[in-house]
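Running this now, will post back.
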Amino acid sequence: MKEIIKKYPFIISDGIPWTPYKGQASEQTFALVTSGGLYLKEHQPHFDTVSIHGDTSFREIPKTVLQEELAIAHSHYDHSLAEQDINIIFPIHRLIELEKENIIGKVAETHYSFSYVNDVVTLVTGTIPEFLSRIRAEGVDVLLLVPV
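Update: finished.
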């Protein structure tokens, strides 16, 4: 095990990338990102759940998604509660309720899902820059991470 750890390509962070919350929620655009392994079962490929490295890709989930349109490809947690109510791992309907009540300004049209990832280098150097580019292009002010 010690030899494996010596060879693992760890990323050393210079600090915690923390940004304090600013602004009024009622004037901002909110989006979700989950690590629950969600994908649109009729329109997107499932995540790779076989590779020891996991899957560094992400799936875009529309605001209008219905529970029956989603599937879960993640082999590292029990899906039973999420299959009953997707809001447990992807609270899109709760976010839409906040928008309708004018508590938040707007729910973004696109939200995101990742799955199990063990290839941190590819994730950080390749996938995350693309992901950030997309959320910035949509004008997302607040991104809520729902870890699973």
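Strands lie at 29-34, 38-40, 59-62, 70-72, 106-107, 110-113, 142-146. More later if anyone needs it.
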